[in-house]
Amino acid sequence: MAKKKIDASTEEKIIEAARKVFTEKGYAATRTRDIAEEAGLNLALLNYYFRSKEKLFSLVMAEKIGQLFGVIAPIVNDDKTSLQEKIELIVPAYLNVLLQNPGLPLFVLSEIRNNPEHFSNRVQAGKILTQSVLVKQLLEKQPNVNPLQFILNLLGMCIFPFVTKPVFEASGLLNKASFNQLIEERKTLIVKWVNLMLDN
Amino acid sequence: MAKKKIDASTEEKIIEAARKVFTEKGYAATRTRDIAEEAGLNLALLNYYFRSKEKLFSLVMAEKIGQLFGVIAPIVNDDKTSLQEKIELIVPAYLNVLLQNPGLPLFVLSEIRNNPEHFSNRVQAGKILTQSVLVKQLLEKQPNVNPLQFILNLLGMCIFPFVTKPVFEASGLLNKASFNQLIEERKTLIVKWVNLMLDN
DNA sequence: TTCATTTTTAATCAAATGATTAAAAAATTT
DNA sequence: AAATTTTTTAATCATTTGATTAAAAATGAA
């Protein structure tokens, strides 16, 4: 029986390069050669370790979807925290995740658009948006408004600046520092705004 | 001297097909053969009329950017309307544009991400975000908050549902009718919410 | 060291893809 | 109608790209 242990360092180099290139350019615009070059490795190694571009992409995408939904899922389903507390937890936590990974939302959203069938099962967004504790609490507070409206606002106010970041950068309007400053300000502002919406 | 007139019908068929395929799949994932097939025409005609995939894409993209910024630009720079009036004009007008062209925001934003250099000049977002009458009026009302914060909220609350639409569709959570219903409700809700933010 | 196994590389393949060409078909002019 | 120009088509090119292969290099076991 042959040795099966694989050099973790090389494997990790490839997937790290794949994370970077896929999230920057999207699946279709990414060449496997781009990834190999970014990793500083021979192209054939990519297929040796991950079989195909598609498989490597699936790994990265699963990771990224996990990041995008992973932070909020436990908060949203905690029945020990109030609606108010949830908002105060979600906003800064989510903004921090996005600050660490600014390209994440646009990457995930555009890939889902490009290949909706492939993600219909994997995205557990449905449960969060219909059966979560948060939804129940929103309905208690505002029975006459579809709770999805508030969730769209809460997530949208967090995510939207990151989705439009390339526009700001292309127009030279915001550098990285002033963008981050803007997001820091939003950590308290969004909480205030969402509470205003819920109290009126 | 030969006749230079070109059959507008064929040309229009191609660009209409290009609009559809490019906005659905993005530049990189679009094959010129997809466009030709969608138009029901020979592939070579695409190059006969538009020289290259790149040129055809530039035309479509210019159109789409125009649609995305064209509706709000005149409203935003009108110094005869109040801040309140501007919000009441922008929200339903913008939501109607997006209802007619739901894929528009995700298409434009992801293409700008994929090729930022190419759009640095063309996007006049900079002026709207710094020199518009709207910005001055926002600063009068709330001198202590970066007006960009409110613009992000106003545009984000309009655009974000359309950016996440593929997720809703993939998860089977919303059909087209209930999505449109959600947007219709937002026409009045967003106006109310933005006013709340500005008054507190 | 020797030998087997694993990892890496250079070369190459086959399919896809943007684009061109030359000829046919259609339209327009004279 | 004849001639000229414009439009359309089928065939083909050259390049790119995901993937494979066979051999070399590195690693670990005996």
UniProtKB/TrEMBL annotation, chains A, B:
Portion annotated as DNA-binding: 31-50
SUPFAM superfamilies named in the record: Homeodomain-like
MF terms (GO), sorted A to Z: DNA-binding transcription factor activity; transcription cis-regulatory region binding
Recorded superkingdom: Bacteria
This protein's UniProt keywords: DNA-binding, Transcription, Transcription regulation
Pfam families, A to Z: TetR_N (PF00440)
Residues annotated as domain HTH tetR-type: 8-68
InterPro entries recorded: Homeodomain-like_sf, HTH-type_TetR-like_transc_reg, HTH_TetR
PANTHER family the record matches: HTH-TYPE TRANSCRIPTIONAL REGULATOR BETI, HTH-TYPE TRANSCRIPTIONAL REGULATOR RUTR
Protein name: Transcriptional regulator, TetR family
Organism of provenance: Flavobacterium phragmitis
